[in-house]
Amino acid sequence: MPYFTRLILFLFCLMVLVESRKPKRKQWTGQVEMPKPSHLYKKNLDVTKIRKGKPQQLLRVDEHDFSMRPAFGGPAIPVGVDVQVESLDSISEVDMDFTMTLYLRHYWKDERLAFSSASNKSMTFDGRLVKKIWVPDVFFVHSKRSFTHDTTTDNIMLRVFPDGHVLYSMRITVTAMCNMDFSHFPLDSQTCSLELESYAYTDEDLMLYWKNGDESLKTDEKISLSQFLIQKFHTTSRLAFYSSTGWYNRLYINFTLRRHIFFFLLQTYFPATLMVMLSWVSFWIDRRAVPARVSLGITTVLTMTTIITGVNASMPRVSYVKAVDIYLWVSFVFVFLSVLEYAAVNYLTTVQERKERKLREKFPCMCGMLHSKTMILDGSYSESEANSLAGYPRSHILTEEERQDKIVVHLGLSGEANAARKKGLLKGQMGFRIFQNTHAIDKYSRLIFPASYIFFNLIYWSVFS
After folding, report:
1. What does the alpha-carbon distance between residue 275 and residue 449 come to, in Å, rounded to a whole number?
2. Which Gene3D superfamilies match (predicted)?
3. Looking at the domain assignment, is residue 200 inside a domain?
4. Do 200 and 294 fall within a single domain?
5. What is the C-alpha separation between 391 and 278, in angstroms, rounded?
6. Residue 199 shares a structural domain with residue 166
7. N- or C-end of the chain: fewer Cβ atoms within 10 A?
8. DSSP helix/strand/coil, 292
9. What's the distance, CA 89 to chain centroid?
């Protein structure tokens, strides 16, 4: 019996062992399992992986002191520079500066960054490596504001070649000073410069140069400005001396801008010219229409003042005269002289009337004839009105014989003044009928003012164009 029990236990254990070694059946899911490609199982060697033991770095950054320049203590390290101008954003006459966005690239060789490569390929890094190695300390001379773009990450690229050559590129926007000369504004051309220089290293330690000469500066063909035409981009280089530190290599990006004149023709020159021409209208208005001529003169003067103020508000406060100032102030003088012309006409007319009034009081018996003669020459009254004003009733019209007798007596009493009037009557009787109620100053002003202004415009545009 014990033997039989041991046999049963042995068989049971054997069945359990056999059942556990059988493969389990997978549950059917309706999907066919595709075989995996064999190349996915092949693992590529990760060169950046830090393995156990002593780590092996691709760039031996920690083995060198990168606070020193390459070849420290030896000859100056050459650093080539090239620039690609992306955009010329704005030109400000008030602040006398410009804003430019560009790609700035540096080229140099640092043997401390050399590495072995079977394929002789370069390695590219972002801005995080820049803080660990030596890079040129180039800055913008006379810059007011500048920054490196950081969207979506810092726009910095570092490319290292196996032999130690380095390419360092940045995308920068800089606002720099531009010394402008506004003596010919707005018919002017401006030349601005963006200057690059090492801040700490003199020409004995760092030699800054344009990598490919004039080909080192490239611009986008789509660059344009609303007020300027970009005529020329070119590069230059020279040495800059500081009395306390020494000589430094300085690179220049020069560009020439010519201002578009059409905007200023519409906004400044045409309105000023129209105001001057409008002031001439007063020469054809009756000299006795005081409100009309005075209001017209004051309106043109105030309008010219507004134009001058508006132009100067958008310009720097320079201590010299600009071309637009000459044109506007000469136009203002013409408008102001038209107001003074009417003041002279009104004054002389008042003096003339006062003299005639005194003559009538001095010769009461002849005042009627004098007034009648004056009205006939002036051409503003008819013969019946003149006889009525002279003391004769309208029904009593002087005959031709009586009128001649009265005129002869009147001329004999009035002396030299009436002799001049008699001469004017004989020579310019038709002229007085054409220019009725017109003073001689008005007649001359109609010709002198336009002729003088046209002559001024011819000289102005020939000199400043």
Report:
1. 13
2. Neurotransmitter-gated ion-channel ligand-binding domain, Neurotransmitter-gated ion-channel transmembrane domain
3. yes
4. no
5. 43
6. yes
7. N
8. helix
9. 11
Question: What is the model's pLDDT at position 391?
Answer: 46
Q: Are residues 201 and 123 in the same domain?
A: yes
Residues 163 and 291 grouped into a single domain: no
Query: What residues contact residue 367 under an 8 Å CB cut-off, 6+ apart?
Result: 359, 360, 361, 390
Q: Tens digits of per-residue pLDDT, 337-375?
A: 999 999 999 888 888 888 888 888 877 655 444 444 444
**Would you put residue 85 in left (φ > 0), alpha (ψ -120 to 50) or beta?**
beta
Whole-number average pLDDT of the chain: 80
Q: At what angle do helices 290-313 and 323-362 cross, to 10 degrees?
A: 160
Contact 177, 124 (CB under 8 A): no
d(CA 328, CA 339): 17
**Same-domain pairing of 251 and 335:** no
pLDDT tens column, 419-454: 445 455 444 444 444 344 557 889 999 999 999 999
**Residue 78: beta bridge partners?**
207
Q: Which of 387, 388, 389 is nearest to 406 (CA)?
A: 387
Q: What are phi and psi of 169, to 5 degrees?
A: -125, 140
Tell me how far apart the terminal alpha carbons of the chain are, to the nearest angstrom.
133
pLDDT at 103: 96
- By CB neighbour count within 10 A (0-12 exposed, 13-18 middle, 19+ buried), where does 348 fall? middle
Question: Is 168:136 a contact under the CB 8 Å cutoff?
Answer: yes
- Residue at a domain's end among 301, 324, 357: 357
Highest mean pLDDT among 30-34, 145-149, 417-421: 145-149
Per-residue pLDDT, 166: 94
**Quick one: 125 and 230 in the same domain?**
yes
Q: CB neighbours (10 Å) of residue 77? A: 19
Cα gap 36→215, rounded to integer Å: 54
Closest CA to 186 of 311, 366, 21, 346: 311
Q: Which helix (H) or strand (E) holds 230?
A: strand 228-242
Q: Tell me: pLDDT of 390 over 60.
A: no
Sheet holding 228-242, edge to edge: 138-141, 189-198, 246-259, 228-242
**pLDDT at residue 439, as a whole number:** 76
Identify the domain boundary among 357, 391, 412.
357
Same domain, 234 and 296: no
Give the number of C-alpha atoms closer than 13 A to the C-alpha of residue 349, restricted to the C-beta side: 18
Residues spanned by the domain of 132: 77-259
Task: Specify if 167 maps to a domain.
Answer: yes
- The CA–CA distances, whole Å, from 237 to 169, 170, 214, 353 equal 20, 21, 11, 79
Same domain, 254 and 270: no
Burial class (CB in 10 A: 0-12, 13-18, 19+), 59: middle
Stretch 152-181: mean pLDDT: 94
| Number of domains within the chain | 2
